[in-house]
Write a structure and sequence with these properties.
binds magnesium ion, Molybdopterin biosynthesis moeA protein, domain 3, Molybdenum Cofactor Biosythetic Enzyme, Chain A, 7 helices, six-stranded mixed beta sheet, Molybdopterin biosynthesis moea protein, domain 2, alpha/beta, binds adenosine monophosphate, about 400 residues, seven-stranded mixed beta sheet
Length: about 400
């Protein structure tokens, strides 16, 4: 494996992995099921929005010229509601229409005053306007969206507002990327499922549950397989099944230098490794490659590491596979509220809480930063992005990403 890129920086690792993107299909889903999905095509509006000029206020519609010298008294000739289908009479000088928000503008009218700036007489057939009419209270046809305009681009995540926009544009269903099926395989002789009795020197298997949550958070489907013993045969058989059934494989454990690190071993001997080890701390062991043509990330076994590596390596890969869709990575600058250990060679991804109550964000360590300490991740708001050698004492500033 001499020619395999080894111990590379995270940018190179992401760049190498994204040369072998997932290709998932496309499906049409009804809007009710579109939230959180990722658009697989540019979406053009089927209509102008608004489709016709209408009133932005409950009030009166009239001819602006009539109102230049307030107060002005006008004759009320009709009432127009939202959804009004009758063709409205063109308004003549000296006339006004009562109009509700969303009601179509009567022909001839070019101005609106909201009801609270008007006084109707008791008979309800005349209105006195106390100021000039306001043309800007008319919502003009197509002022928000033009028919045929690309409003949402391929790769857009369908947030609640975007799902609403799809409806505004007249789409009952939308083309979205299928959710990727992501196999999650934990490895290790010491692993037991929660609920089972622990024998001597065994621990509860936690990575597959955390990773499944992360896959789900990215909008994909996690398939947790039973954890695999440290044996080449067991691993081969699980990898074969996962490669057949899923679009992507995530393993945890067994990718370090140890003698029982069979994921690395089997990938070297029987798979196709594209890189191994990344200059990040925690989480330096990961590898990426393919098994029977299916992309695979070998994530570290330590629970904090596997979580962090997902966020800085697997999440960008999944986003790239979805044309940028999925939850975004948000960065910010923080001031360190205490000394935090950096690293001479690696990007230091320390788990931090971020206090945003003051005039700038301040970061504190979430405690013991051991890569086995999942609690430190659970308590964290973010990760430091401390470059190799960057000073990281109390009062120093650094970039961080939100978790
Ligand atoms: P490994 O990379 O296999 O050497 O594992 C590193 C450490 O992570 C060891 O202490 C393992 O017991 C632990 N570990 C590995 N896999 C899991 C898992 N699925 N859940 C919790 N801890 C794990
Ligand atoms: Mg192991």
């Amino acid at each position: 494996m001499t020619e395999v890129p080894y111990f590379i920086d995270i940018e190179s690792a992401v760049a190498l992995a994204t040369k072998t993107l997932l290709s998932v299909g496309v499906e049409d889903v009804p809007l009710d099921e579109a939230h959180g999905r990722i658009l697989a095509d540019d979406l053009r509006s089927k209509v102008d929005d608004p489709p016709f000029d209408n009133s932005a206020m409950d009030g009166f519609a009239f001819i602006h010229e009539d109102t230049l010298h307030p107060p002005t008294t006008l004759k009320i000739v009709q009432t127009i509601q939202a959804g009004e289908r009758e063709t409205t009479q063109p308004l003549q000088p000296g006339q006004a229409s009562r109009i509700m928000t969303g009601g179509p503008m009567p022909p001839g009218a070019d101005s609106i005053l909201p009801i609270e700036r008007c006084e109707m007489n008791e008979a309800g057939n005349e209105v006195t306007l106390t100021e000039q009419g306001r043309p800007h209270f008319i919502r003009k046809q197509g002022e928000n969206l033009k028919r045929g305009e690309v409003t949402l681009e391929k790769g857009t995540t369908l947030t609640p507002a975007n799902v609403g926009l799809c409806a505004t544009m007249g789409w009952p269903t939308v083309p979205v990327f299928k959710r990727a099926k992501v196999a999650i395989l934990s490895t290790g002789d010491e692993l037991k499922l929660p609920g089972e009795a622990l024998e001597a020197h065994e621990i509860y298997e936690s990575n597959s549950f955390g990773l499944a949550g992360l896959v789900d958070w990215m909008g994909h489907e996690a398939i947790r397989y039973p954890s695999v013993n440290d044996s080449m045969d067991a691993l081969r058989s699980s990898l074969d099944t996962a490669a057949k059934e899923c679009d992507l494989i995530l393993t945890s454990g067994g990718v370090s230098m140890g003698e029982w690190d069979y994921v690395r071993k089997i990938m070297e001997e029987e798979g196709d490794v594209h890189f191994w080890r990344v200059k990040i701390r925690p989480g330096s062991p990961p590898l990426f490659g393919t098994w029977n043509g299916t992309p695979i990330f070998g994530l570290p076994g330590n629970p904090a590491s596997s979580h962090v590596v997902f966020r800085v390596l697997v999440a960008p890969y999944l986003r790239a596979s979805m044309h940028g869709g999925g939850p975004k990575e948000h960065h910010l600058m923080v001031e360190l509220g205490e000394d935090i250990k950096g690293d001479a060679t690696c990007l230091a991804l320390r788990r931090i809480s971020i206090d945003t109550s003051g005039d700038h964000p301040i970061a504190y360590s979430t405690g013991h930063q051991g890569s086995g300490n999942l609690g430190g991740v659970a308590r964290a708001d973010g990760l430091t992005l401390l470059s190799p050698g960057q000073p990281s004492n109390k009062g120093d500033r650094c970039r961080a990403m939100f978790l």
